[in-house]
Amino acid sequence: MNFTLTTLGTASALPTVNRYPSAHVLNVHERLFLIDCGEGCQMQLRRYGFSFLKINEIFITHVHGDHIFGLYGLLSTMSLLGRSADLYIYAPDTFSSILESLILHFGAQFKYQVIHKVVSGNLPQKIFDTKSVEVISFPLNHRTSCYGYYFKEKQPLRNVHKFLIEKYNLSLREIAILKGGTDVLRENGEVLLYDELTYTPYIPRSFAYCSDTAPFPQLEEWVRGVDLLYHEATFLEDNKKTAQLTYHSTAKNAATVAKNSGAKRLIIGHFSSRYKDLSLYEKEAKEIFSESYIAKEGIVIEIPVKK
Amino acid sequence: MNFTLTTLGTASALPTVNRYPSAHVLNVHERLFLIDCGEGCQMQLRRYGFSFLKINEIFITHVHGDHIFGLYGLLSTMSLLGRSADLYIYAPDTFSSILESLILHFGAQFKYQVIHKVVSGNLPQKIFDTKSVEVISFPLNHRTSCYGYYFKEKQPLRNVHKFLIEKYNLSLREIAILKGGTDVLRENGEVLLYDELTYTPYIPRSFAYCSDTAPFPQLEEWVRGVDLLYHEATFLEDNKKTAQLTYHSTAKNAATVAKNSGAKRLIIGHFSSRYKDLSLYEKEAKEIFSESYIAKEGIVIEIPVKK
Q1: Is A143 in CB contact (< 8 Å) with chain B?
Q2: For this structure, is B66 an active site residue?
Q3: Identity of the residue in B46, B69, B98 whose CB atom sits nearest the CB atom of A16
Q4: N or C: less crowded end of chain A, CB within 10 Å?
Q5: Strand A31-37 with A23-28, pairing
Q6: How confident is the model over B34-49, as pLDDT tens digits?
Q7: pLDDT band at A21 (very low <50, low <70, confident <90, very high)
Q8: How far does the CA of residue B273 sit from the closest CA of chain A (Å)?
Q9: Could you tell me what percentage of chain B is helix, strand and coil, using 3-state DSSP and rounding each to the nearest 5?
Q10: B3-156+200-302: CATH class
Q11: What's the CA dihedral at A164, A166, A171, A174 to 10 degrees?
Q12: How do the domains of chain B map onto residue ranges?
C-alpha cells in the first residue's frame, strides 16, 4: 500500500550541474502521478526506475519553463515507446496553447491522446477521484496562474477481523454484508455487529504540493493536517525582498505554513542556484518547524501505513 | 589557438540514464559554436564549464526533438542570465514555426533577439564567415530536412620570423608591409623578401558534423580531407535494415565515409539505446577505419595546431 514521494528535481529557474528543475513522482498504491515536469525529467524517471507507461496523469502547477520543459521530451519518448493510452495533463488554462504547439510540431506520430484537464477557480476543487485517491487543486499566489495539488488517500472499506471469521465461521455472503456496512442477522437469531467484527485497515494518508507561491493566509487552511507538505523555498530570509518581488517563499515562510497548518512533515525544494549550501535552508526551516527536511534528487519519502 | 570538440550528448531518440541527446561544442579560438541542442544541453554546458554567454551561434541539423528540445531551457536561461546580444540559430526552414512558438510562449522577457538563419539547398554552401573560421552547410539524407556543417579554420596571415626581425632590425612599418604580403625595398637598396622572411603560423584545421543521415555518395566528396569527422552511427550492422528504414547509419557506414573521404579521425555518436556495450561500435568502425573513436559525454577532442 505505497504512498511515496520521489523527488526528481530541486532547482528553481536555473538548473545547476546536480540540481534538476522541478519534477516529482507520487506513488499511490502503484499508480504514479507525475507532478511538474522540468527539463531532464525523462532521464530522472529512468534514473530512479519509474516506468513511463505507468504514468497516466501529470499535474502541472504553472507554465514557467522550469516546470514544463521536460514535457517535450517525455511526451515524445512515450510515443516512441508505443504508448496508446490517453494521457491526462492537469494544468491551468495558460497551458492550452503550449500543448497545442507541442502537438502541432512534435505530435504527428503520437498514437495516443493528450488531454488537457483545465484547472481553475479561486477555491479548492476536487479534480480527480478514484476508489483509492482523490486530488484537490487550490490556487497559489504566483506571477502567473498557478495551482497546488492535495493528494488524499480515500477512506478504505472496513475489513473483517480474520480471527472472527474463524470464530463465527462466517460465510462469504456474511463477510460481504459486513464489509458493505451492515449487521448480519442469522437464522438462529444471532446478530453479528458490523462495528464489532470489522476494523479500518488504515487511516488515509495525504500529500500536498505547493510550488511556486508567495505566502497567503488561506493556504494554511487548504492544506490543514496534511501528512507530508511539499512547499517551495526558493530563498532564505536574507533574500526576503527578492522572494516577495518574485512571488516566491523563503524557508521560513514554508516552515510557517507547515507549522500553522498542522502538517506532520515538511519537505522544501525549488532552491535558488545562488545558494550552494542547502543545509542553511534546513536550519532556517527547523527553527520554525522541527519536522522540516530538504529535498534532494532521488530522495524517497514514504508515508507509512497508519492504523 | 584552440580547435576543440566537446561532446555533450551521445544518445539518439531515447536518452538513457548516462547518455544525453545530441549536443556538441566546437571551440575555435575561444569562440564557442553549439551544434545541436538536445534536452539537458544547458546542464551539460554547465557540467563541462562552458559560459553560456560565449555562445552566439547555434547550428541545428534538423527539427527532431532529440536535437532541439534543449533550446527551450537554454534560451530561457540565457535570458535569465541577462543576455542582450543577438543569438543566431542556423537551421532548416522547418525550424521557423518552432522558434516562433518558443518565443511566443516563453520569450516575453527576452532582452535579446533570436535570429533564425535559414539553411537550405542541395549543395554545400558557405553560411558563416569570419576572419578565422568559415562554416559550410551541406544536405544530409534523413527523414526530414537535415543539414551537416563543415567548420574550417581560415588560412592565417603569414608571420615574420622573430630571429629575422632581430637580424634585419625590422621596423614596425616593415613588419606590417611583410605581413601584408609585399617585399620591402629599403632606402639603401636592400630587398627583404616576403617569401623568405615570413612563414605560415599554422595549417588550417577542420571539423565536419554529420547527423542524422543514411549513406549517400556525395557525402564523401563534401567532407573530403577533414581533420575530424563526426558521423552518426545509430546502429550496428546487425540492425542495418532498421538503419535503412529510418534513414540512419551503422558504424560501418560511418567508417566507410571516413575512409573514402580521407578524414584523419572519426568520432561516432547518436547511439541507439538498444546497445549497452558501446565498444561494439568502435570494433565495427575500426575494422574499416582504424582512427575511429566512440563519443562519450564530456569527451574532449583537440585538433592540435599543425605547422
Answers
A1: no
A2: yes
A3: B46
A4: C
A5: antiparallel
A6: 999 999 999 999 999 9
A7: very high
A8: 12
A9: 30, 30, 40
A10: alpha beta
A11: 0
A12: 3-156+200-302, 159-194
